[in-house]
Amino acid sequence: MTDPATPPEPEPPKQRPCPLCGKPRVERYRPFCSKRCADVDLARWLGGTYTIPAAETDEDDIVPPPETRRD
Ligand SMILES: [Zn+2]
Ligand 1: distance of its center to the CA of 69 in Å? Predict the structure, then answer.
């Protein structure tokens, strides 16, 4: 038996996740989950573009070509 008259449960005002990474926000850094995410968002606002602090740089992508020359 189904009950079509049952209204959907009213959702409680649950906390939204961090808008940057989706993790549960921390009250101290709200609406973010951490100081890191807060800093990233701040940098985005200040810079006008989405810029990540230098700590995120990954220079491992720079792979030198293998030495193939012969003598
Ligand atoms: Zn976050």
Answer: 48
Q: For the whole model, what pTM was predicted? A: 0.46
Q: For the chain, 71 residues long, give each residue's pLDDT as a single digit of tens.
A: 667 787 777 766 677 899 999 999 999 998 999 999 999 999 888 886 655 566 655 666 767 778 877 77
Cα–Cα distance for residue pair 64/66, rounded to 1 Å? 6
Q: Which residue has the tokens 């549960």?
A: 24
Q: How far is the CA of 7 from the centre of ligand 1 (A)?
A: 34
